[in-house]
Specification:
The chain has 161 residues and is α+β, with helices and mostly antiparallel strands. It is built from 4 helices and 6 strands; from the N terminus they run H-H-E-E-H-E-E-E-E-H. Strand 5 and strand 6 (136-144) form a beta hairpin. It starts with a helix and ends in a 9-residue tail after the last helix.
Length: 161
C-alpha cells in the first residue's frame, strides 16, 4: 500500500509539473508555423485570430496596428495576390520570442493593398519576430523588401532620361 501511495505521489508530481521553457518554445514555434502555413499560405484568414491575443499589437511603419488592422492588411494582400503562397524557410525560438524567415509569392491579378492588378508574378522574403504570452502571439515586428515587390510588379516610376 505504501508503495502504491509513493507511485501515485510521483505520478501526480510528474503530471502537475510546470511546462518547461523548451516545451513553451516548441509550442510557440508550432503556433507561428501554423499561422504562416495554415492561415497565410492556405488563405484561411478566418482562422487568423486563433493564434493571436485579442489585444495583439503589430509594430507597423509609424504606428501600432491592432489585431483587426493586421487582419484587414492580410485580407488586402490576399485580394492583390489571390494565389499567394507563403513558405516558412527558417524558424527559431528563444524564451517568449519566435523568429520566422519566410518567402511569399503570387500573381497580382486583383487590386488590393493599395496596388492595381498588374497580372505579374512576384516573390520576396521577409522576417517576422513574434512575442508570445500564454501561447498566443501578443506582438509582431515584420520586415520585407517592398521596393523589390513594387519593382517586380512594374509599379515603380520609370526614370526620366
Amino acid at each position: 500500500m505504501r508503495r502504491f501511495a509513493l507511485l501515485l505521489l510521483a505520478l501526480t508530481v510528474v503530471v502537475a509539473a510546470p511546462v518547461t521553457a523548451k516545451d513553451a518554445e516548441a509550442r510557440n514555434k508550432a503556433v507561428a508555423r501554423s499561422f504562416f502555413e495554415d492561415v497565410l499560405d492556405k488563405g484561411k484568414l478566418e482562422d487568423y485570430a486563433k493564434s493571436h491575443a485579442p489585444d495583439f499589437v503589430a509594430h507597423a511603419e509609424g504606428h501600432l496596428a491592432s489585431l483587426e488592422e493586421d487582419m484587414t492588411a492580410a485580407r488586402e494582400q490576399r485580394k492583390a495576390l489571390p494565389d499567394m503562397r507563403v513558405k516558412v524557410d527558417h524558424i527559431i525560438a528563444e524564451g517568449d520570442l519566435v523568429s520566422v524567415h519566410w518567402t511569399a509569392s503570387g500573381t497580382n491579378t486583383g487590386a488590393g493593398a493599395g496596388m492595381p492588378a498588374t497580372g505579374k508574378s512576384v516573390s520576396g522574403s521577409g522576417m517576422t519576430l513574434f512575442r508570445f504570452e500564454h501561447g498566443l502571439i501578443q506582438e509582431e515586428w515584420s520586415v520585407f523588401n517592398m521596393y523589390s515587390m513594387l519593382k517586380q510588379l512594374g509599379l515603380l516610376p520609370q526614370p526620366q532620361g
